[in-house]
UniProtKB/TrEMBL annotation, chain A:
This is Uncharacterized protein. PANTHER family: SLR1927 PROTEIN (PTHR34351:SF1), SLR1927 PROTEIN-RELATED (PTHR34351). The keyword Transmembrane helix applies. The chain crosses the membrane at residues 44-60, 66-86. Keywords: Membrane, Transmembrane, Transmembrane helix.
From TrEMBL, chain B:
Pfam families: TgpA_N (PF11992), Transglut_core (PF01841). This is Transglutaminase domain-containing protein. The lineage of its organism: Bacteria, Pseudomonadati, Pseudomonadota, Gammaproteobacteria, Chromatiales. The chain crosses the membrane at residues 51-70, 77-95, 107-135, 156-174, 535-555. Residues 392-462 form the Transglutaminase-like domain. The keyword Aminoacyl-tRNA synthetase does not apply. Keywords: Membrane, Transmembrane, Transmembrane helix. The keyword Zinc does not apply. It comes from Rheinheimera nanhaiensis E407-8. PANTHER family: PROTEIN-GLUTAMINE GAMMA-GLUTAMYLTRANSFERASE.
């Protein structure tokens, strides 16, 4: 049975996406309206309906009006909760302000903006957000202005955002109102930076050894754009999210011979390796504060420095 | 979420309420087990705020379930089901850890609430159960709501406003079906008259002040002397105790709705009987027609199809004449004389010799009771084996059953078939509410004897204590004995009044809520259909009007935002000229071009117009807008001429 469901699910999802693409093409900002909200009973809802039928049978068999009344009351509640469940989701506006970015095989956090209907954050409760096909989900008890949803990034490239499933079972868990939203936004997956090459004079296990070291303040410094998130001190981040701190590398960043990062005209695995190296080199250069450029077989990015330059170069690598 | 203490407290309270409400279905040791389990949960909640391990709970559950299973035969299927349900709920609460377990718990609670209504339909208890329902709904809500959120009264009010009509409509209009299959009923002790009549059993019954049944009459209440509610026939006598003949409990019913409409006046009435766990119901004189839920036995008794386990209402139509004698066998049955009570038998034979005619004999017995020093008492002395002899010739003090018993035996000795009838006499008439309340204290016994092919009714008590029949039991008793009938709190006038009001409320409750059946439903439908035409035109008119208003609002809303007011003003005044404006050209640009072609004065005017227009449109300037209006009004003629000249160019 489950094998059959597993086999049929992709087909179902393909049909559903085709239907959804027609119904709601991707736009920068989506307000949930009647057209976009679907409502189906939850499993508990089916159980609840069974309870109503059971009570009806009990009331009929005993010819007991009070049990019948109870059964009808629960049925009214069941029906009313369709409307309440719909209202809970209706009017919520979602938008994505900036494209996401991150390195391959890492989680990429995408920041979404939520605006409640009539700016009443209590109107939307127990919201559950999730990218379709992704594990990570966020449950928000009330409407919050911004949330970050993770996407497990695969290969490098530029991707359009998958549909976001917004759902809620509030108030009685009998019905689930849900919507699959397509936001006109994309996210970048950059080649993950290579481990420091032995030629650069740094041990390959450097990352691991440093993570095992005790965090002492003299090896820490403030986060700067371009710092690898691998060096982030997560414990400190959890304590004080406003000022991220990275662990200072023990050795000064290796000096590269040239200010040009060059990707040779190769293909296949060699290209991937070269791109990962280039990604590492770009990060190192940005950290060192020098201005640098990127030469790809088909594209050259002029020399400059700063976060925008790094982003431009990494995007070029992602698309290479 | 499950750490919230208030949820646990709500559930504990609910289960305690279930334990109390379902008390009738539980024997003492079962109740004690449940109480102990709940106490354990309470202790763990207060002292540790943890739950028991699943393993321990499973072991407890298995043991209790096996014990309950052994008790199955004694408890009955329904009681067993209730016990298992409550056990499941209590154990779930004991080991509650997960959210889904809490949801299951809420589900089972809903079902238990439904089951409470099987045992209780009293209005006050129903209120308690409904409170429990709301508590359970609240906990249901909390399970799915954000932590620490509270229900807002406004939201509850809004939900109630939506649910109430929906709910009532369902109750009133949803098809009502007959029972699908036979279901077990709760084993509960029966109340009311039993199938045996001892000297003394009715005295006990009349001390019970609870309601037996209520009656509504179609055409006014009959006189009190006619209100003899027959419930049971006692035909077997063993010298001391009267008993129902096994024949009577057979199932040879008269078919309902059979027989032609009798020529005599009939009495139509509806009886709402309280749960008695007995099949025997109540009827006046000779019922010939009934609603489908009861049967009329040949002897004129009304029997329910199964023991009355909840308040039941049924319709009856009675002829005000005695029940017919069915067969020779029935007469023989009521002539049998047991051994003993020789004095009485001799007295009976002597009376027969003096009064060969039956009516004369009856009169003689009545006058015997009336003239000799006989006393009517709630506390007669205890009697031995020959109870009737002792009563008639020795103690001379008795309650209605003593007189009935003695009279029946006298008649049998005189060769007249006679039997004792058990039932109720009289009742309290409540004119405002329009019903007669008959309580257990109205229990009564009298005699029926066969004469002229019918079972004639004779009540010897009427001879001894006529007030009992004409007014009430209280008037027939001495003040001392009356004290026995009323408990101290009933003597408080205020409380008594409150009790009366509650009883009236309970009456409406049973008529409108408990007694609502498919007949009422059909009537309701019929009324709706009859009045539909009258309402239909009004309804259609209102609907059309509402639709028009909605359409108008919608149209106006669509119209407004597309064009600003300044633009509309200008295009209205200059409509003819603006026909020459190319579609892509802005209005102000077109006017500026027009101004270039005009003479000095008109050009100034146009330029002024443009300025106010642009200010009003792009600066949202209210003053500029009114200035624009003024200018257009003042220079309407100029502008009209302008438009001619524009056409000429």
């Amino acid at each position: 049975m489950s094998a059959l469901t597993k086999a049929l699910y992709p087909l179902y999802w393909r049909l559903l996406s085709r239907y959804l693409d027609k119904r709601q093409p991707a736009v920068p900002s989506v307000t949930l309206v009647q057209k976009l909200i679907f409502i189906l009973p939850t499993r508990y809802g089916w159980w609840f309906f069974g309870l109503i039928v059971l009570l009806y049978l009990l009331g009929t068999n005993y010819q007991n009006n009070l049990i019948l009344l109870l059964s009808y009351l629960l049925l009214s509640l069941f029906l009313l909760s369709i409307v309440l469940c719909y209202q809970n989701l209706s009017g919520l506006t979602l938008s994505s302000l900036a494209p996401g970015e991150g390195f391959a095989e890492q989680d990429i956090g995408l920041s979404l903006q939520l605006i409640a209907a009539a700016n009443d954050n209590n109107r939307h409760r127990m919201l559950r957000l999730q990218f379709t096909g992704q594990q990570h989900q966020v449950v928000s008890q009330r409407c919050v202005p911004a949330i970050t949803l993770n996407i497990a990034a695969g290969k490098r490239g530029k991707y359009t955002l998958p549909r976001i499933k917004v759902s809620s079972q509030y108030p009685f868990g009998l019905w689930q109102a849900f919507s699959y939203i397509a936001l006109l936004q994309h996210y970048w997956v950059y080649p993950s930076p290579a481990q420091q090459s032995p030629a650069a004079g740094i041990m390959p296990e450097q990352d691991q050894t440093s993570t095992r070291q005790q965090v002492s303040d003299d090896t820490l410094s403030a986060y700067r754009q371009g710092d690898s998130i691998r060096h982030l001190v997560w414990k400190r981040l959890a304590r004080d999210p406003a000022t991220p701190v990275v662990r200072q590398q023990q050795t000064p960043p290796p000096q590269l011979q040239s200010d040009w990062v060059v990707v040779p005209a190769v293909s296949g695995d060699a290209l991937e390796r070269a791109l990962r190296q280039a990604s590492r080199d770009l990060l190192t250069l940005e950290q060192s504060g020098a201005s640098y450029g990127l030469k790809l077989p088909a594209l050259t990015v002029a020399q400059a420095k700063g976060p925008a330059q790094l982003q431009r170069c990494l995007q070029a690598l992602a698309l290479c | 979420m499950l750490k919230q203490k208030r949820l646990m407290v709500v559930w504990l309270g609910l289960q305690l309420a279930f334990l109390l409400l379902l008390q009738e279905a539980f024997t003492l040791w079962v109740s004690l087990i449940f109480a102990a389990l709940l106490l354990t949960r309470f202790a763990t909640l207060v002292y540790a705020n943890t739950s028991l391990s699943l393993k321990a709970v499973n072991v407890i559950g298995a043991c209790v379930a096996v014990a309950l299973l052994f008790n199955l035969k004694q408890a009955g299927v329904l009681n067993f089901m209730l016990q298992i349900l409550l056990l499941a709920a209590v154990l779930r609460l004991l080991a509650l850890r997960q959210l889904f377990e809490a949801r299951q718990l809420v589900w089972v609670h809903y079902f238990l609430i439904g089951c409470c209504f099987i045992l209780h339909q009293n209005m006050l208890v129903a209120l308690v159960i409904i409170t429990a329902l709301f508590a359970n709904m609240y906990s249901h809500y909390l399970l799915f709501a954000p932590a620490g959120s509270n229900l807002k009264p406004a939201n509850i009010a809004r939900a109630t406003l939506i649910i109430l009509p929906l709910w009532l409509a369902m109750f009133l209009l949803f098809p009502r079906l007959p029972p699908f299959w036979q279901i077990p009923t709760a084993k509960v002790a029966s109340t009311g008259l039993s199938d045996t009549l001892d000297p003394g059993s009715i005295e006990q019954l009349v001390q019970d002040d609870s309601l037996a049944f209520r009656v509504e009459f179609e055409n006014g209440v009959p006189e009190r002397q006619l209100l003899y509610w027959r419930a049971r026939l006692y035909e077997d006598f063993d010298g001391r105790r009267w008993q129902e003949n096994p024949l009577r409990s057979g199932s040879n019913y008269r078919n309902v709705h059979q027989g032609a409409t009798p020529a005599e006046a009939t009495l139509d009435y509806r009886i709402i009987a309280e749960a008695s766990q007995q099949r025997s119901l109540f009827a006046l004189a000779n019922p010939w027609q009934s609603s489908a839920n009861v049967n009329i036995a040949p002897s004129g008794l009304v029997l329910a199809t199964k023991p009355v386990s909840q308040r039941t209402s049924y319709q009856l139509s009675s002829q005000l004449q005695p029940v017919a004698v069915l067969s020779e066998q029935e007469q023989q049955l009521n002539l049998r004389l047991p051994a003993g009570n020789e004095q009485t038998l001799a007295f009976g034979r002597q009376l027969k010799a003096q009064h060969p005619q039956v009516p004369a004999l009856i009169d003689a017995i009545a006058s015997h009771f009336r003239q000799q020093p006989y006393f009517y008492s709630l506390t007669p002395p205890l009697l031995g084996a020959n109870s009737v002899d002792q009563f008639l010739f020795d103690s001379r003090t008795g309650f209605c059953s003593h007189y009935a018993s003695a009279t029946a035996l006298l008649l049998r000795a005189a060769g007249i078939p006679a039997r004792v009838v058990g039932g109720y006499q009289g009742g309290d008439w409540h004119p405002e509410q329009g019903y007669l309340a008959v309580r257990q204290r109205e229990a009564h016994a009298w005699v029926e004897y066969a004469d002229q092919g019918r079972w004639q009714q004779f009540d010897p008590t009427a001879a001894v204590a006529p007030q009992r029949i004409l007014s009430s039991l209280d008037d027939a008793l001495s003040a001392e004995q009356r004290q026995l009938l009323t408990s101290p709190w009933q003597r408080n006038a205020l409380l008594n009044n409150l009790r009366q009001q509650l009883m009236h409320l309970d009456y409406y409750w049973s008529v409108w809520v408990l007694g609502f059946n498919d007949d009422n439903q059909r009537d309701l439908w019929q009324q709706v259909r009859q009045n539909l035409q009258r309402f239909a035109y009004g309804l259609a008119f209102i609907t059309v009007l509402a639709l028009l208003v909605v359409a108008l609002l919608w149209w106006r809303r669509r119209e407004r935002p597309t064009q600003p007011q300044a633009y509309r003003l200008l295009s209205k005044t200059l409509s003819a000229m603006l026909r020459h404006k190319p579609a892509h050209q802005p209005l102000s640009a077109f006017l500026r071009m027009l101004a270039e072609q005009q003479q000095n004065e008109q050009r100034q005017l146009l330029l002024a117009l443009i300025t106010s227009y642009e200010l009003a449109l792009f600066n949202d300037d209210a003053a500029a807008l009114s200035a624009l209006k003024q200018q257009l009004k003042q220079h309407r003629n100029t502008l009209r001429r302008l438009h001619f000249s524009a056409q000429n160019t």
